[in-house]
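Notebook p. 47: complex prediction with zinc ion.
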Amino acid sequence: MKDMIYLPKGWEQYREEIIAACGGEGNIRQVKEKFGRLTTYLGKEEYDKATLDMYEKMCSLTCMECGSKVAMYFRRHGWVGPICHECILQGK
Ligand SMILES: [Zn+2]
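Predicted complex, structure tokens below:
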């Protein structure tokens, strides 16, 4: 089921916690980034909504490229997402 989880590399640091909050890999239909937000599609098993909400907020503040937690939202080339100033300067 690993290939149902598509996290930007900057968010990989949260992978295990997100899987746990989703109620385990077996409950994950898809986890991905959509419009710069962590988006989860889950099955019917119990999941930890409070923790998942927290990671949604954390991801929205975490650079999708490098994982820095000082990201801001930018829109470029029709793409929207949290990315930090360093990565912008490096042209990522
Ligand atoms: Zn960055």
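Notes: The pocket of zinc ion is lined by residues 63, 65-66, 68, 83-84, 86-87 (CB under 6 Å). The longest strand covers residues 28-34.
Next step: compare against the earlier run before touching the bench.
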